[in-house]
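Q: Could you fold this chain for me?
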Amino acid sequence: MPPAPDFPPAQTEQALLERYAAIAYDKQTDLYEVIGDNSWNVEMAAGTITFGPGLAFPLQVLGTFSHASQTWLWAWANAQSNLPDGLLAQAGQLRAYGAQHGIELLSTSEFDATNRDLHIIGCIASGMFGASGYYLANYGQGTMVVTVKSELIDRVSKNDFARISQVFPQIIGVFEMNHRPAFIQYVAQKGYPVTETADTVSVAVGAGTLTATFDELGRLASLKGSSGS
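A: Sure. Below is the predicted structure, expressed as structure tokens.
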């Protein structure tokens, strides 16, 4: 993954989602290509989550979702779990970012939540910290949300021409967002320069070009590719 573009700070939950949802969803494809549907096991002392032989990855713990109370608890607020400080770095940074910009999702220790919120938190953390993906680890009474980092996942071979064409239409079907800035930020984080007109954004990907056309409200109207000569 190329270095993150120098975007101005996103100052709302919605802006963070628009910046990171597509790139995070993109990386989830690579994560699940590596781990498949394998069961998971966390070794807190080692700071790893394991999905089978040769698939042990460093993790960061973001927080937990209680199935009984339907509430989210940030890891930095979970004193009873005695989590190692080294596994709380990302959660703590998100807390500080939320406090700085007045983003309640990131700075409120515990709140009523849904499964959708878990994915929003995972997407934001995955994108902001350049993780290889996030994982929702269901342990029966609740779900722990973690990020993982692994060169094995990052090296998964992909056809970005096809990947972008698949990922972006899917992610805007999952989350409400401003399509045009979300698309620009997505492809920029993948390292591709864009060319803009009043109603299009074109991206040179390899020998081809992807052209996204947007309506007067900035919503995606079409996403078409053309191969190079």
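A (continued): The radius of gyration is 18 Å.
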